[in-house]
What we know:
Blueprint lengths: L1 H24 L6 H38 L21 H19 L3 E5 L2 E5 L6 E15 L5 E2 L2 E2 L3 E16 L3 E8 L11 E4 L6 E4 L7 E9 L6 E7 L6 H4 L12 H10 L4 E9 L3 E11 L2 H5 L6 E14 L4 E14 L2 E5 L6 E7 L2 E2 L11 E2 L3 E17 L2 E14 L9 E12 L7 E2 L4 E2 L17 E15 L7 E18 L2 E15 L6 E13 L1
Antiparallel strand pairs: 1-2, 2-3, 3-6, 3-28, 4-5, 6-7, 7-10, 8-9, 10-11, 11-12, 12-13, 13-14, 14-15, 15-20, 16-17, 17-20, 18-19, 20-21, 21-22, 22-25, 23-24, 25-26, 26-27, 27-28
Amino acid sequence: MMIRAILLGTTACVLLAAQAHAQNENSAPPAKHHRAESIATRLDRLERIIESQQLEIHQLKAQLGRGSISGGATSAAVQPQPPAAQPEVSATEFQALQNQIYEQEAAQKKQPIVTFNKGRPTISSSDGRWTFSPRVDVMGDFASYDARHQTVAGIALKQSGENFRRAQIGFQGTMAGDFSYRFIYDFGGSNGDETYQAALCGTNAAQKLCTTGAGTGPHIKEAWVGYTGILSPFTFQIGALPPPANLGDATAADDLLFNERASPAQLSRGLGGDDSRESVGFIGNGTFWNASAYLTGDTVGKADLIAPGSSQEAVVGRVAFAPIHDPDTNFTIHVGVNGTDVIRPPESTSVSGSTGQPVTGDFITFSDRPELRVDNVTFLNSGAIAAKSAHAVGLEGAVSYGPLLLEGENLWYGIERTPTKGKSSPDFSGWYVEGSWVITGEERKYNMAQAAFTRPDPDEAFDPANGAWGAWEVAGRYSSTDLVYHAGLSDAVYGGKQNIWSLGLNFYPIYNLKMMFDYEHVDVSDVGKLNNNGEFTVLGMRTQVSF
């Protein structure tokens, strides 16, 4: 509740300050256009006077030259005539006119400037201290599942499906140079696919399909303000935002190698980070380092939906280094460490893994879908575990050279149980490695501000008639996640084991348009109970537009 109060108070102050600035900007004197017209008229008059005087000087020089050639005496016939009377411009009037010219030039410089960066328009003041940029990210997904495996580990799968994974519209910019802001609303999650996740719950003898209460529908993705100023190179941020929890998380959604992040990274991200997370903290970087630390609460709207008045409290931190970074060859080595500590788990109503009945209390759940969001079924699910605290820690590594990239993470998770006789505190783990080759030669550049890699920018826009084919990329990934603890014992947790092989082909006709074709082979075991296993394959496609 304290975090939410701080967020609301700060946001209100920023909005009032912005409104006051807008009123000052709109208070310009109404006579500016009339003054500009008067100045233009007087400038035209001055130019005519100067042109007339230059013509007279030219004629006099010509007459003097002819007189000297004829013997040094100037003929009366060619005596210079007195110039026609011209209106005189006094020094005072000239200075006043010059001052008005300077004022007009200054007024013109205050006009807004519109620029484009990789297709994204930005409107800025003449001094660049006030900026405004729209943001759009739309991702439409389609998937087709292997018809030979309609039921996997006791859970029915879709045969095919589609989903607007993201449909984000918003804006971002700066205020008075030192302040920044961003607001993005996500309309994604069509057909209810993003609203809930399904999983097996209940006792081993009476398993049934139920919801975990996770997932999202249309929601506020980001709504925050920041301040750099005297804190540079750090920026203070407060509001709803996704604090970077690991390398996979720091990679923007429109820069991912595959449709979704690897499950081990997503489990860490969902613990104390993720979209819409109420957060306050700092992020900054230098030429070879990046660091961030945030105090986080719940995601916007989640606490009131699940249990009014509840709130999670967690700390999310990350430190990354690029000891070698050569932009000319794109040779970069990245290393990092990250961690999340849930100080106070959220109060929620969840389904008991042993009785199948709803229970209200402080719970932690680790869960994720199999690296695809078209079907809402979850195989990895620890169930709601009564907890005093929870944590996730990870190690990051990556190397790039030219059009090649290889990166991965190893993560460990743990829950400190609420003291319960006969039950110990479980721990889990996961890791993944992924890589890509941009076969047309473009590179995934390293962005130190994110300490992550960005998508390739085609050297030439797709234009087959002129031999231009955009950028093409092939990618591969293997991920392994283990949410099984003390199998066969009385305090066992059968959250499932999941191993996924993925192959991908990415096509970038232009920087702002991306088409993805993914193949996944998913192998799961011990889902909800011992030896409840299965496997399936799925083909996924995505069309993405972003700027």
